[in-house]
Design goal:
The protein is built from nine helices and four strands. It has about 230 residues and is α+β, with helices and mostly antiparallel strands. It has two domains: about 1-80, Glutaredoxin (3-Layer(aba) Sandwich), CATH 3.40.30.10; about 95-215, Glutathione S-transferase Yfyf (Class Pi), Chain A, domain 2 (Up-down Bundle). α4 runs antiparallel to α5 (about 130-155).
Amino acid sequence: MAKDMTLLWGSGSPPCWRVLIALEEKSLQGYNQKLFSLEKLEHKSKEVLDINPRGQLPTFKHGDNVINESYAACFYLESQFKSQGTKLIPDGPAEQALMYQRMFEGLTFYEKLNVVIYYTFNWFVPEGERHESALKRNKEALVTELRLWESYLQKLGSGSYLAGSSFTLADVVVFPTVGTLFRFGLSPERYPKLGEYYNLLKERPSVKASWPPHWLESPKGLDTLKDI
């Protein structure tokens, strides 16, 4: 089954990590894969563009079906392989509603992180458009977002996943953002519930199996977000 699948991906990319975790959770090891360097802009190569005209990673193909958006790929894998591996969409209406809510809030969470990282490292931001006031505003927006997720986890209690007691698609798609936050120096003392959630999931087999290779090579992260 997995032999009919191909994943083109980049190390440390949260969207790629989402699909990698989903594949592990659905017991779909053994798929075809190729690692591309985002730093070298290899995602703009003909090999990627032939499957994904946006020139983005992940690029995922199952047979003749191409699903390049990471959320879509995760939904697809759960839909096509419901009875295999981990059940990622709960049956209960309350749990399912919370899962969907957190999943799609996760897009805002990721965007708030991205804006700060892009500004800090001057990625994709033209020199004339870089302003300290904008960076300050973006950091404040990220702090507000982080406090919101702290409150969500606080309400659920220790040892909970994002939608309750079970690991779901919400965790598949949001954990890569949380992992990236701590890689860039977020303080677990300042955000203890997010720190607890991070420590819980980083030991999960699917997360360990898909941990970004260059993070393994250089375990020490950055301190970009240490003052957030």
